[in-house]
Specification:
- This protein is mainly β and 377 residues long.
- It has a single domain, classed as Porin (Beta Barrel), CATH 2.40.160.
- Helix content is 5%, strand content 54%.
- The protein is built from 1 helix and 19 strands.
- The relative contact order is 0.12.
Length: 377
């Protein structure tokens, strides 16, 4: 009996000792795999395009994205993403109805973020747009630039300061490296937090393309398209190619006022001018968004008006939907979104545009309707 009681006391003591952590196995060290995140989304879209002088077009399109990111260590993060739309830098859509052929996917993101000190992030690779954007007047939202960028952010009382820069490769020419086309960019902005409900963002950007004038147009469709920009013909034997007729040094100003009035409201605007152009050099946009489609049952509505003259920006990289993409157009955009279920959203967008606007004798209407359902995971 005594031995039994003594054994029970020893077992209880050992259990207590182990529970106290004195002999518990050490927790395994965390690795980058512990921070691995996989996410993606699928969008189905119905689209109708009505343009004067052309037959109406109806089509259905799909977009699929799948990516993974991981924190390599305390200062380094990496992300990769595959998406449809591999033959177009500013669209991830694939039109369906080609005999059930497989849809191509390509490398949409592949970059490394390094944070050498608090507030400073250095990025290299094929990256998300490193610049603050309040609209898609200058850059299409699907564009993923390539090269190196630096982003700096600092809180100073109720104000947040931003400074961003980019050294981006646009076109590498192996047989003539002195003619490589690059984009050098700088941006500065400040966000003023007046209260919990009201903030104001103001800023400016400078984008300059090196070796763009006289170079072949950036035409991923292979149709000698200039996407609205001015061009010249370059004849080589029996072949005629389009080349850019000028350079592009774009100066941008932007602002966004955010307020809470029982629901979030945003007023935003852009102004951009190309200092290398003698005419048709300006673009501007003004818009408003009310609400936020985030939680189930919530919705948002928005409207903006834009005008983008022929040589205000490089047409190959601006919004691909307004007046069919590129520059040399103007018009209205109205949209609404509704969060129908967790991670599932419905959307509708309508464009009422005119193009081209540089030559009034050719200006005609261009309307576009998009109906979307998006599932995210």
């Amino acid at each position: 009996m005594k031995k039994t009681m003594m054994g029970m006391v020893m077992v209880a003591g050992l259990a207590s000792w182990t529970a106290s952590g004195q002999q518990a196995a050490p927790a395994p060290a965390k690795t980058w795999a512990d921070s691995l995140t996989v996410k993606g989304d699928v969008r189905y879209r119905y689209e109708q395009i009505t343009e004067d002088g052309k037959d109406d077009r109806q089509r259905d399109r799909v977009r699929a994205r799948l990516g993974a990111s991981a924190k390599i260590n305390d200062k380094v993060k990496a992300e990769v993403q595959l998406s449809t739309g591999d033959d177009d830098p500013i669209s991830e859509n694939k039109t369906i109805g080609d005999g059930f052929l497989k849809k191509d996917m390509g490398l949409n993101l592949a970059y490394i973020d390094w944070v050498p000190q608090e507030g400073l992030t250095l990025t290299g690779g094929k990256m998300k747009n490193p610049f603050l954007c309040v609209s898609d007047l200058v850059w299409d939202s699907d564009l993923t630039p390539e090269g190196a960028a630096a982003k700096w952010e600092r809180q100073v009382g109720p104000m947040t300061l931003y400074a961003n820069g980019g050294y981006l490769w646009v076109q590498e020419r192996a047989t003539a490296p002195e003619e490589d086309t690059k984009l050098y960019a700088g941006q500065a902005a400040a966000k003023f937090q007046f209260s919990d409900e009201v903030s104001l963002l103001v800023g400016g950007s400078y984008y300059t393309y090196d070796n763009i004038e006289g170079m072949g147009v950036l035409d991923w469709e292979g149709k000698n398209k200039t996407y609205g920009n001015s061009s010249k013909d370059k004849v080589s034997g029996t072949t005629t190619n389009k080349i850019y007729g000028m350079g592009y040094d774009q100066v941008e100003a932007f602002t966004k006022l955010t307020a809470w009035v029982g629901t979030p409201v945003e007023f935003y605007g852009n102004y951009v001018v190309n200092q290398e152009a003698d005419a048709n050099d300006t673009g501007w946009l003004a818009g408003v968004t009310v609400g936020k489609a985030k939680n189930v049952g919530t919705m948002e509505f928005g409207y903006n008006y834009r005008e983008l003259e022929k040589d205000a920006v490089l047409g190959a990289f601006t919004d691909s939907d307004s007046w069919g993409g590129g520059t040399d157009g103007r018009g209205h955009k109205v949209f609404g979104r509704y969060q129908i279920a967790k991670n599932v959203r419905l959307g509708a967008t309508y464009f009422m545009n005119e193009k081209p606007i540089a030559d009034s004798s050719k200006t005609h209407d261009y309307d576009r309707l998009q109906l979307d359902v998006v599932a995210s995971f």
